[in-house]
Structure formats: C-alpha cells, structure tokens
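Hi Y.,

Following your request, here is the sequence exactly as I used it, all 393 residues.
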Amino acid sequence: MIILSGKNLPRMLLLLLVPFVLSGCWDRREINDSAFVIASAIDLDENGQYRVSVQVPLAGQLGGASGGGGGTGGSKTYYVDSESGTTITEAANKLQLRMARTLVFAHRRVLIIGEDLARKGIRPLFDVVARTPENRLSGYMIVAKGKGYDLLNAQPKLERFSGEAIRELVKSEGRIIINIKSAASALSSYGIDPVLAYVGTKKTEKSEARSSEVDILGYAMFKDDKMVDSIQQEAAQGLFWLQKKVKPYNFQVELEGRKVALIMSEGTADFVSAEKKNGKGKFTIKVKALLTVQENLSDFNMSSKEISQELEDKANNAIRREITQTIALIQRHKADPAGLGRFIWHKFPREWKEQYEKDWPDILSKAEFDLQIKTSITQIGLITQNIAEKVPR
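Below is the corresponding structure, written out as tokens. Let me know if you'd prefer a different format.
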C-alpha cells in the first residue's frame, strides 16, 4: 500500500492533470478540410428568401498567374456558389451540405449586401453576423448595385479575387471606411444614419482583354436601416466635408472657359453655432481649405494676385456646391448620413437634449445652413506659366 505524504500529494495531483492538458487535438480542423471564405454576399430573392453567396479561393490554382479569375474551374483562382433559405443560417447550411470542405468565415474580408435587401432593411442581418463567434466584425460592409452575387463574379485584373479588389478600394485613401461594427454602431445610435460604400462593376475600355472591374460608385444612403438613395460624385465629396473626414482631392474650375485643376491639400469643417427659432433650425458651418494648382490649361499667370483671388472665389463656389448637394439629399429623405445630429450632441449637448433630439429628422429637413467657406491658394507648383509658351519679345 502506497502512503502519500502531505509533501508528495500536490505533485501526484499535478501529474494526474497533465493528460487532460495534452489531449488538445480532439477538435482539430485540417487546413485541407477547410474552405476559407474571403467574401460573401447576401441578396433578397424574388420569393422573399435570403440568398447567401460565398467566394472561396481554389488553393490548387493560386500558384499560377496573378491576374483575375472567376467561375468554377480551369485556371480560375476562386469559386463562387450560393444557396437560398428563409433565414441566412438555413441558406448557409444548405450551401455547406453541398461542399466537401467546411466553410470558414473567420477570414472574411468583405460582406456584400444586395441593393434590394438594403432597401428592405439591414438590421436583421446583424443578429447572425454578431451572434456567431467565427464572424469578424472588422470586415468591411458594402452595398452592391444590383445583386451581390454578380459583384462576387467580377473579374478584376490587378487582384486574384473580386473580394480582395473591393477591400483594397474601400480602404484606400480618400474613402469613408465602414466595417460591420461601425455600421451596427450607427444603427444603434441617435443623430446619425449608416452610410456604406456603393459598389458596382465597369467594363474596361480599349483593352485587349476586357475585364469586369470593381468600381466604387459612391455611398449608399440609409434612413435608419433602409437604403433610400445613393450619394455620388460632388455630393459624395460634400459628405466628406460634413462628416469632417475630408482628405486631399482634385477638382476643376474654369478661367474664361479654360480648365484649371486644383488639389484641396488640407481642409477643415466645423459647427460654429446651432440655433432653433419657431421650430426651425439654423446651423452655421465654417469650412477652410488650402489649395494647390495641379494643372493650368489657361493662358493666365498663376502668380498674379488677381488670378489667385479669382481661383479662390471659384473654389469657394465649387466646395459650396458639393456641400449643398449633400444637404439637399439629406433634407429630401430626412436622413442623417453625415451624423450632423451627433456633432450637435457632442458640441451642444444641452441644446440637443432640450431642442433637437425628439424631432431631429423633421428639424433637419427644414433647417437652414449658413456655409462660411474660405479657401487659400498656397502653392502654384514650380512654374507660373507653361514652360513651352513663347515669351513676348
């Protein structure tokens, strides 16, 4: 009979626990048995069911050329498939039953929402996305023009997968970056509505091998969880100003019918005041911008004070037009993608609570905006005129 002393008892108990620690391979998942989803799409079918689509790399084809792919066989680098169901989970399970490998969503980079589903409402999607531990809330969330399934089948030439092309474009400089977590935050907050990248496809022009490239068209505008419009071109740039997220960008003005290209190199926008009289809001926004001359197709000397002043005036009008177009969309739909209500809440918390919070959509739709814009040309480049111009004798 073995008698354990008080000194040896802890050691024996520790030895008995070791086998439990060493049995960590019981739930292992081999890489060869996994299908890693890099992008997925959720659409609304005509019968009202959800259609879930996935894009999975084909490991056997990834050693070939780095150009785009598509389809399901041959030298294509990825595989796209989809299934429908009354719930997102049902559709995903149907898809899994037809696959020899386990779908892994932990590395998903982009979640694409079809436009029809976005217009119906996106709030229900966040339940399954957030409830499943495997899903990453840091993945980008976008709205496809048309069907998300079609966007997954785009064939970009500079990236292996359309999902990767979308990710690179969405996170590039000068974009409003929205991931799943920030979209959910906007939906659950007051004084702001979500805005997501609005993405389509475009055929390449004058190319030997035409391809279907991913194209950022602008931003999908939401009122609560329903898409109501898209914000494109100048209005999209105005959204940057109102969100106070403006980045350097190019725009053009005219001097006597000739184009001058300018770069907005540095800009700020700030709420100066918020007032409410007779149920109508009046907001003052101060905008400052520093400009650089990028290209001059006119015959004017850029070092002239008169020309600089004229350029600044025209730049003022261009920026005012951008912001005004965005405000017009906001007021038409009584939506707040710029988060103007949240800015007022942060800067004027008492006024927001007492005057604006209860009726904010109606107040916003009728509000007056005083835009105080000041631009300054700080650089004209290394030359004042085209170096190929003849000098008068």
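Residues 65-74 have pLDDT under 50 and may be disordered.

Thanks again,
Q.
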